[in-house]
Amino acid sequence: MVSIIGAGITGLVLGEYLQWADIPFRIHEASDRIGGRLHTLESDGFLLENGPSFLDLDDNLFGFLERIGLSNQMIHAYAGARKKFFVRENGTQPLPEGIISVLLGNYFSGKAKEMIWNERFKQGNWVQRESVEAFCRRRFGEEVTRQALLPLLEVQFAGNGGELLLEEAFPQLARFEKDYGSVRKGWSRTRHANRHRGRISFPKGLQQLTDTLGERLQGHIELNCPLTSLGFGERIELKFGDRVEHPSAVVLALPAHELGKMPRSSFPEVAEGMSQVNYASLAVVHTALNRSQIKHPLNGQGLWFPHTEDGPAFHTIFSSSLFPQQAPSGKVLLTSYVSGIRQPEWLEMSDAELGKKVLTALEPLGLSGDPLFQQITRQPAAIPQYDSAILASRVWLRKMELKRIYLGGNWLGGISVSNCVQRARDIAEKIIGRRPAN
Ligand SMILES: Cc1cc2nc3c(=O)[nH]c(=O)nc-3n(C[C@H](O)[C@H](O)[C@H](O)COP(=O)(O)OP(=O)(O)OC[C@H]3O[C@@H](n4cnc5c(N)ncnc54)[C@H](O)[C@@H]3O)c2cc1C
Asked: 108-190, which class in CATH?
């Protein structure tokens, strides 16, 4: 029997693969619901995503969705969704897409355009353990880093680009430089590598994915069943309160800090390593408005702020533009993600104060009047930071796998849902002994 700990996307996808391979398994979930970070709520006809707002489709994810019968339910984000608006002195301006618009447009200064053009010809000069911020500055210079790259990259981790390690957080960028000599060259040669691309959701929001998996795995999931202790001497020992189990293998598909909290007697160094992993807390602020209350056409993915010392450090997705079914007709939904790493003081505010701060920062969109409602969810320790502290947790991976203890979860191998699906598949392959078919 394989025990999977945690019924987030990683644990559920793994369960699906083990079920396919006829390997007996059980999923133990601490809370009273499955899905982990994927959490969609309905309110007054709006679909509110409290976790991820969309999935980045790739061939692996598509294959998985096809296998569980969800590929024909996918809703692709509307075609203009690639456009990203930035707050500028006179309101908002879209970031130019493609080199021609960069060179012909007025978003960047002449010097910055020259840096972007020359990046293609700049020698790769690989630096170990380089931060995301240092890498961007080295390749593209100060202006492009602050006015575009850093805000776009940081929000993915709700983190600080000065701390995030490039090779851990954005390995594809590191590979572009190593393998192709430049980010621009690597990007243009690999951007069509996946046949299935784009941003997607489902008619009932992203939770439809985990709900579908929950139905398929009925009878295999135990809710309200937190793992309280893990031991691995002669054999694996799991404790769920007073109950003790000895599975043949265990997959820990839960946040690193949850493992760090466990009694340390049988694995002190591992638990210590896990407890060192840094996490960003964040607040998700949904703002619902009548369409007439907002001047901006909202014809893009969302709004970002340039990276400054004292400016707002959050970004806002135009949720109802990406997926119109997420708001009733004539209304709009904006979803803002406020980082507790770059802006800890914002997370200390009351809901009323935080809601107001977000509305003030969104003024460049031309808002008027009070919103229909704002809904705020605070998420402590929500996103692992791929900084130097995370490296220690990797040391134990191989050692634990030799004892048939597999580490899953979003602090290894990427934080996106697509990354979690891929990691679950990799672990399934190790347990089954062959690659599971999609
Ligand atoms: C606000 C936010 C926005 C995001 N936006 C995006 C996005 O737009 N696109 C994207 O692709 N990704 C996004 N992500 C990232 C992505 O959602 C997560 O990385 C992914 O869902 C994590 O899945 P997981 O299964 O690894 O962990 P989790 O979802 O954290 O699941 C872990 C499970 O383990 C359970 N658990 C914890 N302790 C125990 C215990 N002791 N015993 C048993 N069970 C336990 C928890 O209750 C939980 O159900 C976002 C994340 C957040 C927080």
From this structure: mainly alpha
